[in-house]
Amino acid sequence: MIFLLIIGMSLVTLLPRLIPVFILEKLEFKPWVNRWLQAIPYAALGALIFPGILSVEPDRPYFGLIGGLVAVLLAWIGINIVLVVIGAIATVFLLTIFIPM
């Protein structure tokens, strides 16, 4: 019974993901639709990251915003993503050390 449940749940999650692949493969979109679709991953990533930025220091949300801005600037320069993350973490860490409550 459990095996059938696992098979059924896998089909329920597989079909909604697989059907659009075959349908969208045959469609031709206008260039502006393609540009819009390519921006979706960045928008989703921003929606996932931004609430975390504000909750780094609950009493001081501007620390997270400053760390986020440092990350954006480092990424804009073209630094490796690992260094961008380390730079943002180091910024928030230094702010919490040098600016007491």
Q: Provide a count of the helices.
A: 4
Taking the alpha carbons of the first and last residues, their distance comes to: 57 Å
Largest sheet: none
The share of residues in helices is over 70%
- Unreliable residue stretches: none
Number of domains: 2
Structural class: mainly alpha
Q: Any idea what the radius of gyration is? A: 21 Å
Q: Please, what is the average pLDDT?
A: 90
Could you tell me the number of beta strands? Answer: 0
Question: N-to-C SSE series?
Answer: HHHH
How does the overall form come out from the CA principal axes?
A: flat
Relative strand content = under 5%
Question: What does this protein structure show overall?
Answer:
The protein is mostly helical and 101 residues long. The protein folds into two domains: 48 residues, no CATH class; 47 residues, no CATH class. Helix content is 83%, strand content 0%. The chain contains four helices and no strands. Helix 2 packs across helix 3 and helix 3 packs antiparallel against helix 4. It is flat, with a radius of gyration of 21 Å. The N and C termini lie far apart (57 Å).
